[in-house]
């Protein structure tokens, strides 16, 4: 397939999407604003041009409908519960997936279920990844299924289902699905670990191609599944190309940044976050993660380029057009966790095509979309060296000159914080014995404080952009993590002693060390540093300044009930939605609430308590002249196991109110 044909088909598809999703058409009534992609558009701006809801009327929102998936009653025994999906809209129907990959279609006006498709995952499998964030839509000429819903599964499949009937598309792969976990992907991983290779984010669509990455269970070993990204024919499921973020060919320009033999054994560097596409330029933007394992790189010396990067690929061939590495030789689990956001950046009286990337390190980068060159300077700054035998870190790391989104200062004993005296004392003792030197503190045998922690900074909730006001909004965490490397000969004895009770311990087979980690929390379960622990940050990306920053969330669902409810801002997952009416909607915290903020000031304007936290990104659409806001309120088992649910909730203004 030539790029000319991809471009031509892509142009036709964009016209069709405009007819079916973004403007009035397809029987939707005279006033329709759609949401045809996971991030709202192919570039993931998480923005709606709908302007019916404003700071003046948002306080009058009321629930329009609630859909219940029934998922918590069927949670898999060896998988955490999640509900992270953002629905997409077509022909008056919302499409979304549950945490166990059940695809559901509901009426966008009433929430009534139209059909569901269950891929039949084995509930007895140990799944390394728990999420399913959404689906992709495709419309075109086909013998069957001219309107398709595509999504990935937790066992590494890509599935195509008829959007009108909920039946598998018979001409796509075998009975509507293709297996992505083939022999090449397995690398040195155990073939029996079927739950460790998953697709948790929706594919990106351009023309008749679907682009898909993968989520790989971290920290098991050096030799894990390979993080291959591939292009698949939407009609047939046939593979058109594949690209491995770890260069296996010595002629690849990035191969020089790897110890060659290690580069052949190492796995991961996968793209688990959503990909973006630029139809006009024929580019696919890929956010890559850490090579395996996350916290020790002595078996993969070098900068490990293409890993921990944003990579622009030619959509027709998979060729690397440009790449920018945002973390060299990652030993912090600082994956690029967000969908790259495609915007037009005001510059010199005109605009420049840009891609914004927020990182777990708490930074925001802006690059030229066509060349990868800096739009705000990126500086290489000296960072601490490792004292772990066998490890060799990069002496410098990239730092954006845009204002930082979240902290990375060195934490000392005087920074210890707690709700009560004994709480503070426990935190101080940990800081006194740990290595803590700020952003990029190396993992160590004595124990290290990583700040930001592996949950960010930014995470998969991504960046929401108002293209007219030039404001980018990011939900960030301020939660440090504790990490200890354990010599393998000591692992069994130290685990048996109870030293790591309550920690996550991973083997990192093939290295001299195992790893233990946990959030840096006090005995009362709150972060050991002064709040806020979660914030919503707005950046003026034309001027390169912070427009405002506000704590996000309260302690209502985080601390024991006998303690007061404090507006500290709390950690969480999920992203913001920005509307043309000047609002930011966000849950994204370990609290049962959805909030609306004034985009111009950061002032909280509206809040509603929910049955479970909204650890998903909201979306919005207009049908019959009515604007809806929808979010999945299902919580996340890793954040608050006692507050999970199964509700997709929609809000609108009361009839007659505008």
Protein architecture, described:
With 658 residues, the chain is mainly beta. It has 5 helices and 40 strands. The strands form 11 sheets. A 5-stranded mixed β-sheet has the order 1-34-35-36-37, with no helix packed on it. A 4-stranded antiparallel β-sheet has the order 2-40-39-38, with no helix packed on it. The N terminus is likely disordered.
Give the uncertain stretches in residue-range form.
Answer: 1-30
Q: Separation of termini?
A: 49 Å
Strand order of the largest sheet: 1-34-35-36-37
**Strand percentage:** 25-35%
Class by SSE composition:
mainly beta
Mean pLDDT: 92
Number of strands: 40
Main sheet record: 5 strands, mixed
- Total helices: the number is 5
Radius of gyration, Cα only, in angstroms? 23 Å
Helix content: under 10%
- The best one-word shape is globular
In a nutshell, what does this entry contain?
With 658 residues, the protein is mainly beta. The N and C termini lie far apart (49 Å).
Features of the shown structure:
five-stranded mixed beta sheet, disordered N terminus, 658 residues, four-stranded antiparallel beta sheet, mainly beta
List the helices and strands and how they pair.
Layout: H1 3-22, E1 47-48, E2 62-68, E3 88-90, E4 93-97, E5 103-107, E6 113-117, E7 136-139, E8 147-152, E9 157-162, E10 177-179, H2 183-186, E11 197-198, E12 204-206, E13 209-212, E14 215-216, E15 229-233, E16 239-243, H3 260-265, E17 276-278, E18 283-287, E19 309-314, E20 320-325, E21 341-347, E22 350-358, E23 364-368, E24 378-382, E25 396-400, H4 421-433, E26 448-450, E27 458-466, E28 471-477, E29 481-487, H5 491-496, E30 504-506, E31 513-519, E32 534-540, E33 545-551, E34 577-579, E35 583-586, E36 593-598, E37 604-609, E38 619-623, E39 626-633, E40 647-652
Parallel strand pairs: 1-34
Antiparallel strand pairs: 2-40, 3-4, 4-5, 5-6, 7-8, 8-9, 9-10, 11-14, 12-13, 13-15, 15-16, 17-18, 18-19, 19-20, 21-22, 22-23, 24-25, 26-29, 27-28, 28-32, 29-31, 30-31, 32-33, 34-35, 35-36, 36-37, 38-39, 39-40
């Amino acid at each position: 397939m030539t790029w000319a044909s991809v471009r031509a088909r892509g142009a036709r598809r964009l016209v069709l999407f405009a007819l079916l999703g973004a403007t009035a058409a397809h029987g939707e009534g005279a006033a329709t604003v759609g949401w045809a992609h996971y991030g709202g558009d192919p570039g993931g701006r998480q923005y709606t041009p709908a302007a019916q809801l404003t700071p003046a009327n948002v306080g009058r929102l009321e629930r329009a409908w609630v859909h219940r998936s029934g998922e918590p009653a069927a949670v898999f025994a060896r998988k955490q519960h999640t509900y992270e999906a953002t629905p997409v809209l077509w022909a008056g129907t919302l499409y979304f997936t549950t945490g166990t990959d059940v695809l559901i279609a509901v009426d966008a006006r009433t929430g009534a279920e139209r059909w569901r498709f269950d891929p039949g995952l084995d509930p007895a499998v140990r799944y390394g990844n728990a999420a399913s964030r959404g689906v992709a839509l495709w419309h075109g000429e086909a013998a069957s299924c001219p309107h398709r819903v595509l999504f990935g599964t937790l066992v590494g499949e890509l599935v195509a289902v008829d959007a009108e009937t909920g039946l598998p598309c018979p001409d796509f792969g075998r009975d509507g699905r293709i297996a992505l976990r083939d022999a090449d992907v397995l690398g040195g991983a155990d073939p029996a670990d079927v739950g460790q290779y998953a697709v948790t984010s929706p594919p990106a669509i351009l023309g008749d191609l679907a682009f898909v990455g993968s989520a790989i269970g971290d920290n098991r070993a050096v030799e894990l599944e390979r993080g291959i990204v591939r292009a698949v024919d939407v009609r047939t499921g046939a593979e058109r190309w594949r690209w491995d973020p770890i260069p296996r060919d010595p002629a690849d320009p990035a191969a020089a940044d790897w110890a060659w033999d290690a580069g052949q054994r190492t796995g991961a560097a996968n793209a688990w976050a959503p990909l973006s596409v630029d139809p006009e330029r024929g580019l696919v933007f890929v956010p890559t993660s850490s090579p395996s394992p996350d916290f020790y790189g002595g078996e993969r010396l070098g900068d490990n380029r293409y890993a921990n990067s944003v990579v622009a690929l030619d959509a027709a061939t998979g060729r690397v057009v440009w790449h920018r590495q945002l973390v060299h030789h990652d030993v912090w689990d600082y994956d690029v966790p967000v969908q790259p956001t495609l915007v037009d950046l005001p510059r010199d009286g005109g605009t420049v095509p840009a891609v914004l990337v927020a990182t777990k390190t708490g930074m925001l980068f802006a690059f030229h979309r066509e060349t990868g060159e800096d739009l705000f300077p990126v500086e290489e700054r000296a960072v601490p060296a490792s004292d772990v035998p066998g490890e060799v870190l990069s002496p410098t790391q990239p730092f954006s000159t845009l204002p930082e989104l979240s902290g990375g200062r060195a934490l000392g004993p005087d920074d210890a914080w707690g709700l009560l005296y004994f709480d503070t004392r426990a935190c101080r003792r940990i800081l006194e014995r740990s290595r803590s030197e700020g952003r990029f503190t190396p993992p160590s045998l004595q124990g290290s404080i990583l700040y930001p922690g592996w949950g960010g900074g930014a995470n998969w909730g991504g960046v929401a952009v108002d293209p007219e006001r030039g404001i980018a909004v990011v939900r960030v965490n301020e939660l440090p993590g504790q990490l200890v490397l354990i010599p393998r000969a000591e692992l069994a004895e130290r685990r048996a002693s109870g030293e790591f009770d309550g920690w996550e311990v991973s083997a990192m087979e093939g290295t001299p060390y195992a790893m233990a980690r946990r959030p840096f929390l006090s005995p009362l379960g709150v972060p050991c540093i002064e709040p806020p622990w979660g914030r919503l940050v707005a950046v003026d990306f034309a001027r390169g300044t912070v427009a405002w920053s506000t704590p996000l969330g309260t302690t209502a669902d985080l601390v024991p009930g006998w303690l007061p409810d404090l507006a500290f801002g709390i950690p969480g997952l999920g992203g913001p939605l920005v509307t043309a009416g000047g609002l930011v909607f966000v849950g994204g915290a370990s609290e049962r609430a959805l909030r609306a903020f004034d985009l111009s000031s950061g002032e909280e304007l509206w809040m509603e308590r929910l049955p479970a936290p909204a650890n998903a990104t909201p979306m919005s659409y207009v049908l019959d002249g009515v604007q809806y806001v929808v979010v999945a309120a299902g919580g996340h088992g890793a954040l608050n196991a006692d507050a999970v649910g199964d509700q997709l909730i929609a809000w609108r203004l009361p009839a007659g109110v505008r």
